[in-house]
């Protein structure tokens, strides 16, 4: 299961749409490692001249790796995080997460990061089964 959904939030979702803030709070509580990684790069990116920040440290355990994968593989979770932080997230391997300020999304750096070439260059035997 990706998220630990409180009963009251589940009941509200069964009745109709929920507020983004409530959804993001659920993500923050359910996936603390993923939240930490994403919030670190998302808050750093807008302050950098190139609008880019990334995290390249492998997670300390499979549990944390799973959190990161669940957060970034889900369109709803990833989209909620992007809206909350006001950035575009990009993901390579099982641990390399980048955040781009909106002004950097059309940059050469962004296009290189999300390109097939960028993906291939970021591979290594150690990360094959991550």
Mean pLDDT: 90
Number of domains: 1
Spatial extent as radius of gyration? 15 Å
User: How are the strands of the biggest sheet laid out side by side?
Assistant: 1-3-2
| Helix proportion | 40-55%
Overall description:
Pfam families: KH_NucS_shadow (PF20704). By secondary structure, this protein is mainly α. The protein has one domain (7-123). The chain contains seven helices and three strands, in the order αααβααββαα. The protein has helices at 7-15, 20-30, 32-44, 62-73, 75-85, 108-114, 116-121; strands at residues 52-55, 88-92, 96-100. Strands 1-3-2 form a three-stranded antiparallel β-sheet, sandwiched between helices. Strand 2 and strand 3 (96-100) form a beta hairpin. Helix 3 (32-44) packs across helix 4 (62-73). The longest helix is centred in the first third of the chain and has 13 residues, at 32-44.
Tags for this entry?
3 strands, single chain, globular, 3-stranded antiparallel β-sheet, mainly alpha, 130 residues, 11% strand
Topology:
Layout lengths: L6 H9 L4 H11 L1 H13 L7 E4 L6 H12 L1 H11 L2 E5 L3 E5 L7 H7 L1 H6 L9
Antiparallel strand pairs: 1-3, 2-3
Helix pairs in contact: 2-5, 3-4
């Amino acid at each position: 299961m990706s998220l630990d959904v409180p009963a009251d939030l589940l009941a509200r979702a069964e009745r109709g749409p929920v507020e983004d803030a409530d959804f993001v709070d659920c993500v923050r509580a359910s996936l603390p490692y993923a939240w930490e990684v994403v919030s670190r790069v998302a808050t750093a990116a807008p302050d950098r001249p190139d609008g880019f920040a990334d995290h390249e440290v492998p997670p300390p355990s499979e549990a944390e790796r799973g959190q990161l994968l669940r957060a970034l593989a889900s369109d709803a979770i990833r989209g909620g995080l992007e809206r909350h932080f006001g950035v575009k997230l990009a993901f390579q391997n099982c641990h390399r997460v980048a955040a781009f300020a909106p002004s950097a999304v059309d940059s050469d750096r962004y296009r290189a990061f999300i390109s097939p070439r960028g993906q291939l260059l970021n591979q290594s035997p150690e990360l094959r089964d991550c």
